């Protein structure tokens, strides 16, 4: 018996030592860093022409500026309700939005109490319908509007670049975009033209585009125009680089969506299985599963299941959402 214990202890010691040798020794001895340094020195650099290097450097600068603008925008405070309504493309006032939200909340509360749901459930559904649902709709409309804007923005920038290269003034090039571009790009460029018509400088009018369309691409477009109006420079080249960066970001976003679709489908199936199974069991044997909401312990178990399912869905959502 003692020999067996000694043999097991020896085998466990050898296994732990082997794992430590494989995983920890390269980190502690510096062998991995030395190998990476040798590889970086021995790796041949590709031959790049000076023109291509300069073009790539300019595009990298534009993309770096976009990332910096996006990082600063995330640090800003909460957007007021009136601006969020404007960003969603609605012409409602704050009072109208609040009145509609209150009506939805009262309707949900009345329907819940009418069907015997109780005051607590009615208050919860009223909060969800009067506070959560309208703001979710605002976020959905805002996201859809931003996607449509980003889809048409590269073509609009190319139109401006071609107009400038053909000799047209910047204001006339913006008029061409406002006349032919799809919504919401048409409305945003018309707002720029109208703002400039009443006396505001064109650079400042373009810079205010970000207030209605809170995107780093829109902010960078306004910054480029504002800097060119103040200090001059090759505007067509700067906007051309911006157009290339926008198209590259669009390709990267679509590639990420295609690569993550399998994970999103798996997450959707896993997240929908518990309620589907619960519904099927209730349809077949309702007395068996009704203990979850009729018994005190069952209610506690059901609440715990909802909490853990919410945590799992949140973790899966974080795992399959990629920033670039």
Description:
- The protein is mainly α and about 325 residues long.
- It has a domain at about 260-324.
- The protein contains 16 helices and no strands.
- The termini are far apart.
- The relative contact order is 0.06.
Q: State the total count of DSSP E strands.
A: 0
Average pLDDT, to the nearest integer?
A: 77
Q: Helix-strand pattern, N to C? A: HHHHHHHHHHHHHHHH
Number of helices: 16
Distance between the termini: 60 Å
Specify Rg, calculated over alpha carbons: 29 Å
Strand % is under 5%
**Biggest sheet statistics:** none
Query: What percent of residues adopt helix (DSSP H or I)?
Result: over 70%
Low-confidence stretches: 42-48
Please state the overall shape, judged from the principal axes of the Cα atoms.
elongated
Structural class: mainly alpha
Can you describe this structure in just a few lines?
By secondary structure, the protein is an all-alpha fold. Helix content is 84%, strand content 0%.
Describe how the helices and strands are arranged.
Blueprint lengths: L1 H22 L1 H5 L1 H12 L7 H25 L6 H7 L6 H21 L4 H47 L4 H11 L4 H13 L4 H6 L1 H4 L3 H16 L3 H50 L1 H4 L1 H4 L1 H25 L4
Characteristic key phrases:
324 residues, 0% strand
């Amino acid at each position: 018996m003692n020999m067996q214990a000694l043999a097991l202890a020896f085998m466990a010691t050898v296994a732990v030592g082997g794992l430590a040798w494989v995983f920890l020794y390269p980190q502690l001895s510096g062998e991995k860093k030395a190998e990476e340094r040798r590889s970086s020195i021995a790796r041949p650099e590709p031959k790049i022409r000076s023109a291509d290097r300069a073009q790539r450097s300019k595009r990298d600068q534009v993309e770096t500026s976009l990332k910096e603008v996006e990082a600063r925008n995330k640090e800003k405070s909460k957007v007021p309700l009136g601006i969020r309504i404007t960003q969603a493309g609605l012409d409602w006032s704050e009072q109208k939005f609040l009145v509609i939200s209150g009506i939805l909340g009262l309707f949900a509360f009345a329907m819940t109490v009418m069907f015997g749901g109780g005051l607590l459930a009615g208050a919860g559904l009223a909060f969800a319908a009067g506070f959560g649902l309208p703001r979710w709709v605002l976020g959905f409309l805002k996201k859809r509007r931003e996607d449509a804007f980003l889809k048409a923005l590269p073509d609009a920038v190319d139109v401006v670049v071609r107009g400038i290269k053909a000799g047209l003034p910047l204001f006339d090039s913006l008029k061409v975009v406002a006349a032919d571009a799809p919504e919401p790009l048409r409305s945003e460029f018309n707002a720029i033209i109208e703002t400039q018509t009443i006396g505001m400088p064109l650079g400042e009018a373009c810079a205010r585009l970000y207030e209605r369309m809170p995107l780093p691409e829109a902010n960078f477009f306004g910054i480029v125009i504002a800097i060119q109006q103040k200090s001059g420079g090759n505007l067509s080249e700067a906007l051309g680089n911006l157009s290339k960066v926008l198209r590259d970001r669009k390709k990267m976003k679509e590639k990420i969506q295609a690569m993550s679709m399998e994970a999103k489908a798996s997450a959707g199936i896993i997240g929908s299985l518990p309620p589907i199974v619960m519904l099927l069991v209730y349809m077949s044997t309702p007395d068996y599963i009704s203990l979850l909401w009729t018994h005190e312990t069952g209610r506690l178990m059901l609440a715990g299941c909802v909490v853990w399912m919410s945590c799992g869905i949140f973790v899966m959502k974080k795992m399959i959402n990629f920033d670039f």
